[in-house]
Hints:
The protein is of the alpha+beta class. 27% of the residues lie in helices and 23% in strands. A six-stranded mixed sheet has the order 9-8-7-10-11-12, sandwiched between helices. A five-stranded antiparallel sheet has the order 3-14-16-6-5. Strands 4, 13, 15, 17 and 18 form a five-stranded antiparallel sheet that branches. It has 15 helices and 18 strands. α5 (199-210) runs antiparallel to α6 (238-246), α8 packs parallel to α9 (323-332) and α14 (506-513) runs antiparallel to α15.
Amino acid sequence: MMRKGSLAISTFALVLTACATNGGQDVTVTGHRADSSHTENLPPPPPPPPALIRAAPVQGAYIPAVQIPQNPGRERYEGEEVSPVHLVAQEPVSTFSVDVDTGAYANTRRILMLGQKPPQDAVRTEELINYFRYDYPAPQNREVPFTVSTDLAMTPWNPDTRLLRIGLRGYDLPRDNRPPANLVFLLDVSGSMSSADKLPLVKSALTKLADNLRAQDRVSIVVYAGAAGVVLDPTNDKRKIRRALDALNAGGSTAGGAGLQLAYNIAEDNLIEGGVNRIILATDGDFNVGIRDPDALIELVEKERDRGITLTTLGFGTGNYNEAMMEQIADHGNGNYAYIDSAMEAEKVLVDEMSSTLFTIAKDVKIQVEFNPAKISQYRLIGYENRALREEDFANDAVDAGDIGAGHQVTALYEVVMAGTKGWVAPRRYEPAAPAADSSSNSELAFVKLRYKLPNGEVSKLIERPVPSAMLYTARPAAGDMAFVAAVAAYGQKLRGDPMLAQFTYDDIEKLAGTPSDFWRQEFVQLVKIADSLDGR
């Protein structure tokens, strides 16, 4: 385990490969928190370790140049406060919209690889958790397009609480049954996209997507810089798509609003009834000409969403990255937000997971959990701060919520306090006595509801699942998938500065994650080590 204050050469070497621009600038954090409207001054990058400076070259060996990690620049994020504790006696019901975005995980990884701790507002724990797949049973048919799984374990960082996991898994459409797709690539080719981690990576990433088109799919390409224009009319010819992508160069200002409007016009002109009509926006989010106001952009994407045209956003680059806009317009556009920081991430998002991203099996998916006060006295939802809904929103079909694609998974974690045991909040002097704790194991500790609409439906359907209280009395230390979920949750909350983690360390998180065989989980363990080495700087 790598300790604070002694950044090992192996960790430093990981940072050397990162693309660094706008060195010495600060990350600007804007959000709803009382302290997030000002500039957060990240610490200056450290000098290379003395061991690297003094190392004598080996005769005939290639010694790569030492690159100093740089600040990621002035970037914009919107965050919420860490979820508060709720008393079941007063607020027994928790309601939220599902979230299948993963952009916060890749973006956090990118900042860590630059040798910096990510701003707390850049970390959304639910997106970190949902970056990984878990062993949930698959549904049998499209009529009930989800399975709902629940399990419970002892909380690794608090012996007085338990972790309740709720897992959804969507029906996976066979390739032959997937509807045709009308895709519009909307590409930022402004001057801010010229670096190697932006437009060149965009071109490479979308070439991978184009290579997986089917005969019934069509792609158009719209670009924008100082103005917006169409560079490729709808086609299925992969050679034409590659040539159009290869010919793109960066330069000029960023008329993103005009580009978005043009892309919607092209998508509407080529609308496929009953098919997938999706704009895929690839940019660093730096709109500086035309429509720039987030509220105006959200109004535009909501109007087009209601016409059947959805929006996926792909973030690229560092320095002036506007993640706040990218995540918000994807959410309101009933699409997904991902961040692409490498060719491997492009392969994961645009090849391995693209069927889940494009082919919606359910829309306006909401989860509601009601806790039994005789079993649970206090709870908190880990993550999903910007997805919270009012209790009355759950049954209101006019309230928009998240969409789930073919084969998608959604994981939510609650940390709960058993009735009759010590919790985070002490009893109040004048409040009524809490309900007597029920020690029987033949009742329910909670009741889970899932509400969703089919892709072409306007009336929601309901799935209900009781959570048996016997789980409370048979809970064991987290193991397997549950241990890994808990490790990712702890990692996200620790990066967010969650005080509820007490003395749980990055070393504890690494041990909890175990020794995974999967590449992405192995990488997670390495990121935990890097975060540990940067902790306290």
